[in-house]
TrEMBL record, chain A:
This is Branched-chain amino acid ABC transporter permease. Pfam families: BPD_transp_2 (PF02653). Its main location: membrane. It is found in: Cell membrane.
TrEMBL record, chain B:
The lineage of its organism: Bacteria, Pseudomonadati, Pseudomonadota, Alphaproteobacteria, Rhodobacterales. It comes from Primorskyibacter flagellatus. Keywords: ATP-binding, Nucleotide-binding, Transport. This is ABC transporter ATP-binding protein. InterPro entries: AAA+_ATPase, ABC_AA/LPS_Transport, ABC_transporter-like_ATP-bd, ABC_transporter-like_CS, BCA_ABC_TP_C, P-loop_NTPase. Signal peptide: none annotated.
Length: 306, 256
């Protein structure tokens, strides 16, 4: 039970990072990235190839994931040059599917459907089984905390204000002298590289990645996290990811209580519960559990408080 | 002889196979308040889109302060001191009124990634300074009591004033106003006229104004350009062009 809780929290940390990354793209800037899982998978495989095939330490794997993810993000966003809603949504959706097919078919690089084995773990040598699990959780929470602090600072800065203005109406910042395309590119690349970082953590945690780990289901959970939590608010993204993971993972405990259902039915039930939650939140609290704050920030209101 | 602030030189634009602006030339001198009038569909808003860089002209030249700026994107034109308002005001609903104005500040150190992350003190100092300026701009357009409201909660007329405040904050020396008096309560129209006059007189701002409200045009502008069906029809003082038979015909239709 204890071990299970640690496992759920570890998964939750990964979803928190993904939700924060999507919040940078969609919540702040209004960029519709339906290909979250493509960047996530790209990060997982890049990191795995770096540590296993090339024998580098795990930090290099994480770095490689971020660089590859960010570069892919830049290419994808430049493909749909103006990055306006629908085009970007379609291109990213196609990107994710292309990535999954590449993982499946580029056997020489990814070992295809048999799965890519990853021995490198983000732990110190010689820890026991339990200690290792806790250590990994600690590392993931640390990474999530760093991503939160950085993104939260960006969101609250004048940089974040430009991103939010682009989300509201891109013609306004453009006519006020802001290079909208450059800002969109920055937000998209930041988000994509962090999604790939989450993929790297995931890969070194589960230690075997297969193309089936990177299907639309992941993207759906991340989008639900953000919508439930409150798009535009970094704390909301964190809360949403925790709530959605808690429900998704927690419903496993329902299985013994409902012996009249087959395991397949139980796993379908989990999505029904999350779907219902989404509908309830969107109906009664469309701005999410923790809505974006609109009023002028106190720092701007009261000069030099400290 | 001074250089024209804006020089429109034979601009043309074809949209969907229709020539909506056809070889139009005129100029706006520094410190002038100029009107751009004409019946619906004359091409006035397209002309604004060309001058603000939202559309690229198919032919002709655009010069600002004597510099050729033809085909530059909107954000580059804004840096040449040209800022526009929109016919249907475009406020950033989910940003506060104050943030709407602060957004317009040119070269804010906190708007770069590096600045936002690694120079918190410089950014806070700039933000404090610029907040003071932004408040002055809000005071100029009488929006001070509304600064912490979301911009979406303002009335139609207040949104137009907010656009004006943003243009001032952006450091615009030339402001293009697209039907700023349309759908605005009469007492606010009076206020807008007074504000535009004050900005022109005290701060030397140049204005180019699209407007259907005759009283507004007559009260404000020293010269008007009349467009009809994409062409330049007449140019001169409002009283002069309003006696021009071609202008009357374009507004009222051909005499039977």
């Amino acid at each position: 039970m204890d071990a299970y809780l640690v496992a759920i929290l570890t998964t939750a940390a990964i979803y928190v990072i993904l939700a924060l990354a999507l919040n940078m793209q969609f919540g702040l800037t209004g960029l519709m990235n339906f290909g979250v899982v493509g960047f996530y998978g790209l990060g997982a495989y890049s990191s795995g190839i770096m540590t296993e095939t090339l024998g580098q330490p795990i930090v290099m794997g994480m770095l490689a994931a971020m660089i590859v993810g960010g570069t892919a993000g830049a290419l994808v966003s430049l493909l749909s040059i103006r990055l306006s809603g629908d085009f970007l949504a379609i291109v990213t959706l196609g990107f994710a599917e292309t990535m999954r097919l590449a993982f499946n078919n580029e056997d020489w690089l990814t070992r295809g459907p048999r799965g890519f084995l990853i021995m490198t773990r983000p732990v110190l040598e010689g820890l026991g089984r339990d200690a290792t699990a806790w250590f990994i959780l600690g590392v993931f929470l640390l990474v999530a905390a760093v991503v939160f602090v950085v993104f939260n600072r960006l969101a609250g800065s004048p940089f974040g204000r430009v991103l939010r203005s682009i989300r509201e109406d891109d013609l306004v910042p453009a006519t006020l002298g802001k290079n909208v395309l450059a800002y969109r590119l920055k937000a998209f690349v930041l988000g994509s590289s962090v999604m790939a970082l989450a993929g790297s953590l995931y890969a070194h945690y589960v230690q075997t990645v297969t193309p089936d780990n990177f299907t639309t289901q992941v993207a759906v959970l991340v989008w639900m996290s953000l919508i439930v939590g409150g798009a535009g608010n970094m704390k909301g993204a964190v809360l949403g990811a925790l709530v959605v993971t808690a429900i998704y993972e927690g419903t496993r405990f329902l299985a013994p209580l409902m012996e009249f259902l087959t395991p397949t039915q139980v796993s379908a039930l989990r999505f029904i519960i999350i779907g219902t939650l989404l509908i309830v939140v969107v109906r009664f609290r469309p701005e999410g559990l923790l809505p974006e704050r609109i009023v002028a920030r106190p720092a701007a209101r009261d000069p030099a408080p400290g | 002889m001074s250089v024209a602030r804006i020089e429109v030189d034979g601009l043309s634009k074809v949209l969907g196979g229709v020539t909506v602006v056809n070889n139009v030339s005129f100029q706006v001198d520094p410190g002038q308040i100029m009107g751009l009038i004409g019946p619906n569909g004359a091409g006035k808003t397209t002309m604004f889109n060309l001058i603000s860089g939202v559309l690229r002209p198919d032919a002709g030249k655009l010069r600002v302060n004597g510099r050729d700026v033809t085909g530059l994107p909107p954000y580059r034109l804004a840096r040449h001191g040209i800022v526009r308002s929109f016919q249907l005001s475009r406020e950033l609903d989910r940003l506060s009124v104050l943030d709407n104005v602060l957004l317009a500040a040119p070269s804010h150190p906190g708007e770069t990634l590096g600045g936002a992350l690694f120079r918190p003190f410089a950014v806070r100092r700039a933000e404090t300074e610029l907040t003071r300026t932004a408040r002055e701009m809000l005071a100029l357009v009488s929006l001070t009591p509304h600064e912490s409201k979301p911009a979406g909660a303002l009335s139609g007329g207040q949104k137009k004033l907010l656009e004006l405040a943003r243009a001032l904050m952006a450091g615009a020396d030339t402001i293009l106003l697209d039907e700023i008096a349309a759908g605005v309560a009469p007492h606010l129209v009076e206020e807008i006229i007074a504000i535009v006059q004050k900005l022109n007189r005290d701060l030397g701002k140049t204005f180019l104004i699209i407007e259907h409200n005759v009283g507004f045009i007559r009260a404000l502008t020293s010269r008007v350009v009349v467009m009809a069906a994409g062409e330049l029809l007449a140019e001169g003082s409002f009283d002069h062009v309003s006696r021009n038979p071609a202008v009357i015909e374009s507004y009222l239709g051909q005499a039977a």
